[in-house]
Amino acid sequence: MRDVIVAGAGGGGAVIAKELAAQGLDVLLLEAGPRFGNLESDWSHFESDANGLFGGYLRFGPADLSRPAWLRDLPQSSLFLQLSGVGGTTNHYQGNSPRAMPGAFAGYQGDDRAAYDTAHLFPFSYRELIPYYEWVEHTLPVETAPMGTKEDVFLRGAQLLGLPVQRSKEITRAACRAQENAILQPSGTAGKTSDPSKLRFPQAKGCTFCGHCGQGCFLPRHAPINLKSKRATSVSYMPMALTADLWSRGGRP
Ligand SMILES: Cc1cc2nc3c(=O)[nH]c(=O)nc-3n(C[C@H](O)[C@H](O)[C@H](O)COP(=O)(O)OP(=O)(O)OC[C@H]3O[C@@H](n4cnc5c(N)ncnc54)[C@H](O)[C@@H]3O)c2cc1C
Asked: Of the candidates 237, 239, 196, which has an alpha carbon nearest to the alpha carbon of residue 218?
């Protein structure tokens, strides 16, 4: 008898499994898709394009792409972009992790409150969400994105157009900044060379600026799974869920 059964080891499932098991609950986490156990052979820089636009791994189905996708019942004509497997869609997400606008929450009293969709406010206050944001931002971790020359030029242009630089995580006005994301900052040779032989861990750490963020990230090569650059669930919360007994006293694996 389990306390909790979680269906789907994606961005939501892996997080809730880890947090509940770390609190001492007996959690069973079920995943219908494959386990991508060796990122360096499972991912390429082009697998999203393997079967044409939005094909490849962005579908609900087996790892063997020569086999058809699994059938889904959809309530209306719509397109699902989902990655099936341990880690779920975060394996191929972009890692963008901004905070929501405070005006989208109940109780917002700013002068611009009428500018928001007040018929569909989140039914709790932004302040209540802050501790959750802080916990996730600390855990992934979420940091200001690594910037290259292109981003630097773009942001300087935005400032010339009159957009101030956003310096806090709380967005209250039109502004510009490098995005907040779940990509580890580069260090060592990462970001300083495109020579693959120099982009191996530990010579290179964090983001290598390869530019293939919409794919499963396997860089830096030879990095342990928890130090792959993109903080997909499969390299962050999944290993943490499997070792939940180590994250707090009384936690269970
Ligand atoms: C290309 C792309 C880029 C994105 N970029 C961003 C971004 O930059 N920032 C951001 O915040 N969001 C981004 N998103 C959205 C984000 O990735 C998803 O919202 C998030 O991953 C969804 O998490 P989830 O747990 O709800 O679902 P998923 O992560 O999709 O997990 C669902 C899991 O459940 C499994 N499953 C389904 N049915 C069953 C079943 N019956 N039994 C067992 N297992 C089952 C699936 O195999 C899958 O692994 C992006 C999405 C895409 C497609």
From this structure: 196
